[in-house]
Structure formats: C-alpha cells, structure tokens
Write a structure and sequence with these properties.
Elements lengths: L3 E9 L4 E10 L4 E5 L6 H9 L6 E6 L5 E3 L12 H6 L3 H19 L3 H20 L5 H11 L16 H15 L3 E5 L7 H13 L3 E5 L3 H7 L2 E6 L2 E6 L2 H35 L6 H13 L25 E11 L3 E11 L3 E5 L6 H9 L6 E6 L5 E4 L12 H4 L10 H10 L16 H13 L5 E5 L7 H13 L3 E5 L3 H7 L2 E6 L2 E6 L2 H37 L15 H22 L2 H5 L1 H31 L1
Helix pairs in contact: 3-4, 5-6, 9-10, 18-20
C-alpha cells in the first residue's frame, strides 16, 4: 500500500523555482529523512505535503486510510488547560471510542427491540475491534511514556500549559503529535528544543514506531538512528537514497565521483573531436571531419556535477597563552538554588572542551561564569596570562542587527581592513553575492550564525567560546565549522547538544546533570562508553547484592523450618494432593470465564457479560484462597 504519492511537484516564489519535478512515494512504516542546504525548500515541501500550502504544478495523492499530520511550530494554548489536558488532546479519538463502547454496552443492557439490539451488537463489535487494533486499553501508560520521555515529570502534569517556557510548549506539541500517532508524521526539526537525553528517547520511540514519517533534521546522529531512506533536496531537485544518513553520505560521495569522471571523460572526447574537426575541416580528411561533426552533434551532453556550496571557514593563528587558560576554583552558581556547587576546572592551552547536559542544567551559566561575565556565588575564576576571548552567544547579540553584513564583521581595531577583504571573509563562511549588503536583521538564523562566526574570525583571539554554534547551521555548514575548529590552534570551549559535533571536535567533555559537573577525557562517544561501563558495574553490584540478600533469606527460612510445626493453621486440614486438584479445577474455570469475556456472543448480551465478569472475580478470589491453603498444607502437613 502507498500512503502518499507525489508526482512532478513544483513551487516557485520568484524567477527561480524553489523546487521542480519532485516525485516520490511514501509507504507504511518508512522513515524518511529530508536533507538539503538551508533555503533548498524542505519546509515548503513539508507544508505542501501537510496541506498547509499548495504547489504550483504537480499532484499529491493521499490514500483514503492515510492520516497525515505535521508537527506544529507554534500554537496557542487555552490558559485553562493543563499539560496533561494538552497531551491527551492527541488521544481524543481513542477516548471518544472508549466512551462510545461504554454507551453502547449500556444501551444493549436495556434494549428490548431485537432489530435495534442487532444494530447495537454490530456497532459494538466494530468499536471493540478498532479499540483492540489501536491498543486503546493502555492510554494512561502511553501518556506517561511520552511526557516523561520528553523530559516532563508527573508533578508538572496539572500545571497550566501556558506557564511553561516556549521550548517546553514546543515539546508539548511534539507529545500531542506522537500520542495522536497519524500514519504519516511530518516532523520539521523535532529535536530543536530537546536535550541529549530526550533526543535519544525520541530516536528510540520513532525507530520502533509503526507509523511512516518524513523528518527534517540537522542532527546527524538522529538521522542515522531513525531513518531508513534519505531524500536530498539540492538545486531544485530531489534525489532518493536508500539507507540512513551515513549510508546516504557515502553513496552521495560515490555518485558525485562517478558523475565527475563521466563528465571529464566526455569533455576529453568532445575536445578530441573538436580538435580533429578544426585541423581537418579541409583537405584529405575533410570527409572524416564531417563524420566527426555529426558524431559531436549526436553526443548527449552530461551536465557537470555541482556539489553543495563548500566553505573554507577558518580562524587565524592564535597567539600563545599561559598553560592554564582558565582556572575555576570551588565555584558555586545559581539563583534560588545552586545549579552546581564546589566545581573546580582547569582548562589547558589547546584543549577543545565540549559541555553538554539537560536543558536548564546550567551549561550556559557555567560558560558565562568561567568567562567572568557572571560572578560566582562562591569560589573564584582566573584567566591565564595572554588570554583573549572571542564569544559566540546563542542569541547572537554580539552582532549589530541594524547594519549590513560587511559592517557587522568589521573589526574596530583594524581600520586598514577594506570592504573587499571583508567580503572575502564572508564568502569563506558561505555568504556571497548581494546578501553582504543586506541588514543583519533581515537574515535567517543560519545566515546570522555565519555572520557571528565570521566576525569572530576577524578578532585577534586565542580562546573561542561558543554557545550552541550549530543550532541554525545546515549539515554542510556544520562540517565546515567542525573542520575549522579542529584546525584552530588556540583553546576552544563550547556548549552543544549535537552529539556528532561533540564527537568530531571535542578532546574533552564536561557533563552537567543534577548539579554534578563531571570532566572526561575524550569525546562524547568516549564519555558514553565510560558511562555504560559504570552503569553495568552498578547493575552488577545490585544484582550481586540481590543474590546475597536472597541467599540470606534462604538461610533464615531454613533456620526457621524446625519451628513451623508450632504455627497455627488458618485452614482446616486437607491433603496436599486434594488441594492441588482443586487448584487445577479452579484454573480451568477461570480460563473458561476469560474466554467468555472476549466471546462476541457474550459481549452482545449486557446482563450475561456482567454475570461472567462477577463469576470471574469470584473464581480468582477462590484461587487466591486455595493457593494460601496449599502453601499451609505443604508447610505444616
């Protein structure tokens, strides 16, 4: 079955198309990653698929059974609704089915007309079948799983949703969509407001979900874990690749190499033919020259492959600093309550420190404290001799929004720098053409990030401090920044939730969680491996303790076995074999009653269904009594 069929889709806003001739299908369970540089039209395509926008050309066919829903980016919540109310809104169709089943059961119990009862029976069967299909008997468990997986705690459930932060409200929207479980989910940057722990939970949830999805994401780890197919948007076209992101990345490189070689070979052939024709247009080989002209005209020209825009981001050579770049000694920081206490860090020259942790754990606060922007509540911070810091803040407030890009990166201490030199720098960060004359305030998030990074490259700094530098960058800009930072010979401190970025750039990582600040040598994968070893050690100790406790109980049980004869009986004396025979009969009765509970004939008769339910409860209670009698008989007979 094909849930969604897209044929020859095109969208155009000005003289150049955003995309054209877009064609693909979506089948049940497919996990599709939609990738491409910023501005390629990914979000536009997603809106068209969701029915929130229209294409200029082409068709979209939706299967009659397809429910296609896009993750909302902004929503207005009813101030009266709690977090739990909003999450459960995604399950309203299932709650409605449950209520309908209850209402039909009540109606069947009092209906006297045989025709009316038959209609009620048929509708009840359909509703029950749908409830079974949708697993609608564990809704509260599903709500808990999703809300807690996305970082909410039960004590927040009754809190009005309007009291949560913007990032938390975006997570509420994601929770509502996951619980609604449409069979085609359209997710545009679903991890933007998630910390690493919540992102890893979402990866596992989506990877195991039955629904199909199309996801736009710059998180390469996420794409690797979740997707089994990649659609690449580039130069107005969509190219289909099987496999996850890593598979796509390798296939794309191979495809580009094959296309480049084919183009080069054809260019050589064209050059040879052209040269022969030029030299032999007249003379003895003129007829052969005419044949070459015909052959040249028949050649179907291969278009030269054009890769994504490549950047040569870079930072100048760093001047030397003291060996200890930053020393933070026994620092405590926090406002109402400490975010962290008695933290000591010594950052050495040349280290690349990646900081990560849950939202609200104090990552940015730690960054600003060690920079001296915020005074610690206790302890002290010292910068080493010769340290010159360049700071990239999340909100990019260091960039003047009211000037053009050229002026935004102009260093005040270098009057000799010309506009042409500044344009060259912007070009190395992927900002070329007329955009350099545009005001910063009119730029996209990704463009503003590049401006802020370009500005840093114009400063004479030897310590780069970056707070979430990849948030608005596409995959190719991220890779360029990674290469530039790895080549930087100064010291780097950065906050990031991008695990791929942490892996490629960091030489050391700092984890902040539950007020604990931990320092690890190595990158994120090294940290993750160490944490796994420690968790396994803890689990092994707990298992050993449990075994020791069980052994102790066995000893205690054995030591008291001689005293059991003194215990008083709770039941009349019976032979063990007789009790076991009664237990077997009781279990057979319970099995028959449980079978009756799912028998459509029983369910159609409200009175009979109630009687079966009452009998089952009584039989289960009697089985509990018989087991207690059996244990006493084994122990005291």
């Amino acid at each position: 079955m094909i849930l969604l069929t897209v044929r020859d889709l095109a969208r155009q806003f000005d003289s150049d198309p955003v995309f054209s001739n877009v064609t693909f299908d979506v089948r049940p369970g497919e996990k599709i990653g939609l990738v491409g540089p910023n501005g390629a039209g990914k979000s536009t395509l997603m809106k068209i698929l969701a029915g929130l926008d229209e294409s200029d050309v082409g068709t979209i066919e939706r299967h009659s059974a397809a429910r296609i829903t896009m993750l909302e980016q902004h929503a207005e919540f009813d101030a009266r609704n709690s977090l739990l109310d909003e999450a459960k809104a995604g399950l309203q169709p299932l709650y409605a089915l449950q209520r309908e089943a209850e209402e039909i059961a009540h109606q069947m119990a009092v209906e006297q007309d045989s025709n009316g009862l038959d209609k009620l029976h048929k509708r009840y069967d359909l509703v029950q079948a749908e409830l079974h299909r949708l697993d609608a008997y564990n809704l509260d468990h599903r709500v808990d799983e999703v809300l807690q997986g996305l970082g909410f705690s039960p004590d927040q459930y009754d809190r009005p949703v309007t009291q949560f932060s913007g990032g938390q409200q975006n997570r509420v929207l994601l929770a509502r969509l996951l619980l609604a479980a449409p069979n085609v989910m359209l997710l545009d940057e679903p991890t933007n407001h998630l910390d690493i722990e919540a992102t890893e939970w979402l990866e596992n949830y989506l990877a195991n979900a039955d629904q199909a999805l199309i996801v736009v994401s710059h998180d390469r780890y996420f794409l690797d874990k979740v997707t089994n197919r990649i659609l690449e948007m580039h130069r107005h076209q969509v190219t289909d690749y099987p496999g996850n992101f890593s598979a796509y990345w390798g296939q794309r490189a191979e495809r580009m190499l094959v296309q480049q070689r084919a183009w080069e070979k054809q260019q050589e052939e064209i050059a040879d033919l052209t040269d022969f024709i030029r030299k032999n247009a007249y003379g003895q080989l003129a007829s052969q020259s005419k044949d070459r002209e015909k052959k040249l005209a028949r050649i179907e020209r291969i278009e030269r492959p054009v890769d994504f825009q490549t950047f040569s981001m870079g930072f100048p050579k760093a001047t030397r600093t003291a060996d200890n770049v930053i020393e933070a000694l026994n620092i405590t920081q926090g406002f109402d309550k400490p975010l962290f206490e008695n933290v000591t860090l010594r950052i050495k020259r040349g280290e690349r420190i990646g900081i990560f942790g849950p939202n609200g754990s104090g990552k940015t606060t730690l960054l600003r404290t060690v920079l001296g922007e915020i005074a610690p509540r206790a302890g002290k911070v010292r910068l080493g001799n010769g340290v010159q810091v360049g700071y990239f803040d999340q909100k990019m407030e260091s960039v003047n929004p009211d000037v053009d890009l050229i002026e935004a990166i102009r260093p005040k201490h270098k009057p000799e720098v010309t506009p042409g030199m500044l344009r060259d720098v912007l070009g190395r960060f992927g900002l070329k053409g007329e955009i350099v004359f545009q005001k910063v305030s009119l730029c996209s998030g990704g463009e503003r990030s590049k401006v802020a990074l370009a500005r840093l490259s114009m400063l004479d700094v030897n310590v780069l401090v970056l707070d979430e530098p990849t948030n608005h960058l596409d995959l190719w800009a991220c890779e360029a920044l990674e290469n530039a930072l790895k080549s930087f010979d100064g010291t780097l401190i950065f906050v990031s939730h991008d695990r791929y970025f942490l892996d490629r750039v960091a030489t050391h990582v700092i984890s902040i969680e539950n007020g604990e600040v931990r320092y690890f040598e190595g990158n994120y994968s090294d940290y993750h491996a160490i944490r796994k070893i420690r968790e396994d050690e803890v689990a092994a100790k707990q298992q050993a303790a449990a075994k020791a406790s069980a052994a102790k109980r066995d000893v205690e049980t054995k030591s008291t076995s001689d005293k059991v004869a003194k215990k008083k009986r709770q039941f009349p004396y019976r032979q063990v074999a007789d009790v076991e025979a009664d237990i077997a009969k009781q279990e057979e009765l319970i099995a028959r009653l449980q079978a009756d509970m799912v028998d459509p004939n029983v369910l159609r008769d409200g009175r009979r269904a109630k009687q079966v339910f009452d009998d089952l409860e009584a039989a289960q209670a009697e089985l509990v009594r018989l087991y207690a009698l059996w244990e006493e008989a084994v122990e005291l007979n």
